[in-house]
């Protein structure tokens, strides 16, 4: 959803899912560069600890505290992982 909203504002972003950094690291450098080009700003979104993502991303949205219980939409809002939060983070990255 964040990708769609950003595109409506003329900001073209790509979403990459990386369920296994272990398998990603086993790939050759040409493949890794095609997935995460070094000359492209990268935001990692991780609804958990973000430590591993700093290797791949310029910015990381993560939770560095113990999680919370409750309805998903409340927890996502409380930890600032809404679509609007993602959109705003990308925009802030682009004006740096």
Overview of this protein structure:
By secondary structure, the protein is mainly α. The protein contains five helices and two strands, in the order H-H-H-E-E-H-H. It has helices spanning 2-8, 21-25, 29-35, 72-78, 83-95, and strands at 43-45, 59-61. Strands 1-2 form a two-stranded parallel ribbon. Helix 1 (2-8) crosses helix 5 (83-95). The longest helix has 13 residues, at 83-95.
Sum up the structure in keywords.
globular; mainly alpha; 96 residues; two-stranded parallel ribbon; 5 helices; single chain; 2 strands
List the helices and strands and how they pair.
Blueprint: H1 2-8, H2 21-25, H3 29-35, E1 43-45, E2 59-61, H4 72-78, H5 83-95
Parallel strand pairs: 1-2
Helix pairs in contact: 1-5
Main β-sheet, spatial strand arrangement: 1-2
What's the shape?
Answer: globular
- What structural category characterises the helix and strand content? mainly alpha
Output mean pLDDT: 94
- Helical content (DSSP H or I, runs of 4+): 40-55%
Largest sheet: 2 strands, parallel
Oligomer: single chain
Strand content: 5-15%
Number of strands: 2
Put simply, the count of helices is 5
What's the helix-strand series?
HHHEEHH
Rg is 14 Å
Low-confidence stretches: none
Distance between the termini: 23 Å
């Amino acid at each position: 959803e964040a990708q769609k909203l950003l595109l409506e504002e003329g900001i073209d972003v790509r979403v990459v899912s990386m369920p296994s950094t272990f398998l990603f690291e086993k790939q050759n450098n040409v493949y890794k560069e095609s997935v995460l080009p070094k000359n492209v700003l990268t935001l990692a979104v991780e609804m958990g600890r973000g430590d591993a993502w700093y290797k791949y991303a310029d910015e990381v949205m993560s939770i560095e505290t113990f999680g919370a219980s409750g309805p998903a939409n409340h927890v996502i809002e409380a930890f600032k992982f809404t679509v609007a939060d993602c959109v705003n983070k990308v925009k802030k990255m682009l004006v740096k």
